[in-house]
Amino acid sequence: MKKRVTLRDVAAAAGVHVSTVSRALDPKTRHLITPEVVSHILKLSEQLAYRPNAAAYSLKTNRSRTIGIIVPDITNPVFPPIIRGAEDALAQQNYVAILGNTDGSPQREEEIIDIMRARGVEGLLLASVKARDTVVERLAAEGMPIVTVNRRVDDPGTASVVHDERDGTSRILNHLVGLGHRQIACIAGPQDLSTGRDRYLAFEEGRAALGLERDANLVTVADSFNESAGERCAEELLARDIAFTAIVCANDLIAIGAISALRRHGLACPENVSVTGYNDMPLADRLLPPLTTIRVAQYKAGHAAAELLLEALSSQPGERVARHLVLPVEMIERGSTQAVTVKAKGRARRDTPARLSPA
Amino acid sequence: MKKRVTLRDVAAAAGVHVSTVSRALDPKTRHLITPEVVSHILKLSEQLAYRPNAAAYSLKTNRSRTIGIIVPDITNPVFPPIIRGAEDALAQQNYVAILGNTDGSPQREEEIIDIMRARGVEGLLLASVKARDTVVERLAAEGMPIVTVNRRVDDPGTASVVHDERDGTSRILNHLVGLGHRQIACIAGPQDLSTGRDRYLAFEEGRAALGLERDANLVTVADSFNESAGERCAEELLARDIAFTAIVCANDLIAIGAISALRRHGLACPENVSVTGYNDMPLADRLLPPLTTIRVAQYKAGHAAAELLLEALSSQPGERVARHLVLPVEMIERGSTQAVTVKAKGRARRDTPARLSPA
DNA sequence: CTGTTAGCGCGTTCAC
DNA sequence: GTGAACGCGCTAACAG
Q1: Of the candidates B165, B354, B340, B174, which has an alpha carbon nearest to the alpha carbon of residue B246?
Q2: A301-322 mean pLDDT
Q3: What is the pLDDT of residue B333?
Q4: Per-residue DSSP letters for B276-335?
Q5: What's A191's domain CATH number?
Q6: What is the tens place of the pLDDT at every residue in A208-238?
Q7: Alpha-carbon gap, residue B337 to A159, rounded angstroms
Q8: What is the average pLDDT across A288-299?
Q9: Torsion angles phi and psi, residue B98, rounded to 5
Q10: Predicted confidence (pLDDT) at residue A359 exceeds the cutoff of 70
């Protein structure tokens, strides 16, 4: 491996002292040096392909130009756009990111944060937080700059970029009611995550506002935002033997699982049961059936979160105010929802005795 | 932010010299120190939550314990499993990765590599290489350890982990012929990428071996591995006004695009035309229709590639031999392929005059 | 076995 | 305007 050219090499070539080169190369201190010398040094360092040594810079200044991004699992299609957005924003300021996957485990999260701190990350972008997150609380107390993205923590002291869950859920409900649905089931997401909780709260709120009766039997809570949890919850709803014509799912993967489970029980989506997702993840439009869902701007969220973090890094610790961004969402109507038909209405299950349906 | 505890702090607390602490903490040199002293130091450093400063280590040893992973676009569902596999392998040796997206642009690739070198990455994991890649050639010549994953470069001097493209393509062809297809079109991938080229070569080889006639009209080449390229190529095939009952696509996204284009022209998959993908990306089983495709072990490939790279890093520059791994693939039969029906056979297009179909 | 010493490459405070 | 000197936190060579 060719050895790297250092400040010293450039200085030797230019016939000046290292510190002169250092100053000439830094736009902030460049004015201290004679213009001709500056241009000479600039040309030379270009020629020699001088690249400052990040480790030395970091050791000296205690600034690593690195931040940590922590997600539950990069393999979940929700996260890549967030990461991409964040990295694009970071790159503009010569920052890079190192990535960690927690698989939802708080211990793993702690380990990863430990590793990242050893690496001297200047801040953290967290897509993995629980609503009540002791790891984050402790870190924030120590003054580590943190921005959560997609999810947030209850403590308003931690900056966040999230989506308008209430509006999204309300649009879904209005859409379904507009199609004639009155018996609407809900597969809520994990209630220890802000997204799962906020969407569920918005569901109950919207349901009440639309004059639909509350029925605890229509609600089930998934322990995870994935397909198998969706399947399990749909099975549970079906086992309860109650009537519903639509299911509002906490995210797209849950919806996919639910549709599979329905199909196994001989129920077609949307003919027998309408199903909605949330996130509009990649390929949601190509599924069988294409998902009616809420489009959230994940790339934008990642981008904005990184910018918020960079902003916090460049401000003094004292003057930091945790900022919170709520991005607007959009409803995307596709094939997984349709108007209630007389046939499907009332009773969602096929081979069980009919029962009185309210209204 | 709480200031970090350094070796010096631990040394002061233990009443010994820094270098003693350094040695006690390193398993390799620990045997030089009296066991009681070691355990005392270990306990103390634990207590003080000592974390070695990565920048200082890196500056001193010239080893950053960081590698660069470069992909075309993390948003493409093929890459997250590769990245995840690589990161899991790296983590076992206390390495971390920084990520870069090239969007397929060689200039961007060069910029990213520049940034990564400034960061002192010890090696590179490349999922972005062209078959002929001057950037990689130059880097390899300079001695930078490189492993390509998923794709490879023509130069056998660069280590790689790829999948058995020939076997995969041959399975697809056998499957289709077994279903009675004789007029099989092909949407090949970009021919400057090893995957696109190898799959296409295997297609021609397999076609000949199966005794199918060569027809240049049945082949089209996509300029990119995505849905819109798939749509364009399918349109092109249709415009040529030739008969085919199946299309072999270079990857899943192309297949998805092709199916969309067919549908726009009133052709259903698989009823009128069978379509195959490649990669078995996440959700390929949930699409409309579910894709018959080749499953490649992306996580495993990423994992293996990272291990290969770590191995190269720990060996002496002299004794390095570029290793090449070819992982086995598996065919997954789903709904996008079916036996040729009398009705569909011969002529794939509906509202155009029929034409003689060979055999 | 342990302490001493000498940098790794850079930014920064002093002198000049 | 420029050079000299120092040290960030750590490892490694050498002493003892």
Answers
A1: B340
A2: 85
A3: 98
A4: E-SB--TTGGGBSSPPBEEE--HHHHHHHHHHHHHHHHHS-GGG----EEEE--EEE--T
A5: 3.40.50.2300
A6: 999 999 999 999 999 999 999 999 999 999 9
A7: 50
A8: 96
A9: -115, 150
A10: no
Q: Are A151 and A127 in contact (CB under 8 A)?
A: yes
Number of separate helices (H) and strands (E) present in chain A:
12, 12
Residues of B in contact with A146 (CB under 8 A): none
Q: What is the pLDDT of residue B71?
A: 96
Task: Note the pTM of the prediction, 2 decimals.
Answer: 0.89
Quickly state the pLDDT bin for A3 (edges 50, 70, 90): low
Least confident range of A39-48, A171-180, A338-347:
A338-347
Per-residue pLDDT reduced to its tens digit, A121-149: 999 999 989 999 998 988 888 889 999 99
Percentage of the residues of chain A whose pLDDT score is greater than 90: 68
How many Å apart are CA B299 and CA B149, to the nearest integer? 11
Instruction: Give the total number of structural domains in chain A.
Output: 3
CB contact under 8 A, A80 and B75: yes
- Whether B77 sits inside 8 A of A77 (CB atoms) is yes
B199 and B94 in a common domain: no
Query: How many Å apart are CA A52 and CA A45, to the nearest integer?
Result: 10
Q: Which of A51, A75, A98 sits opposite B98 (nearest CB)?
A: A98
B40/C1 CA-to-C1' distance in Å: 16
How far apart are the CA of B260 and the nearest CA of chain A, in angstroms?
9
Omega before B328 within 30 of 0, i.e. cis = no
Residue in A with minimal Cα distance to B298: A75
Tell me if A262 is assigned to some domain.
Answer: yes
Assigned domain for B120 exists: yes
Structural domain boundaries enclosing B31: 7-51
Task: Give residue A163's pLDDT.
Answer: 98
- Helices (DSSP H) in B156-272: which residue ranges? 165-178, 194-209, 227-239, 252-264
Instruction: Supply φ then ψ for residue B297, to 5 degrees.
Output: -90, 80
Does any domain span residue B176?
A: yes
Q: Among B303, B298, B325, which Cα is nearest to B90's?
A: B303
The whole-angstrom distance between residue A305's C-alpha and the CA centroid of its chain comes to 10
CA distance B56 to B3: 15
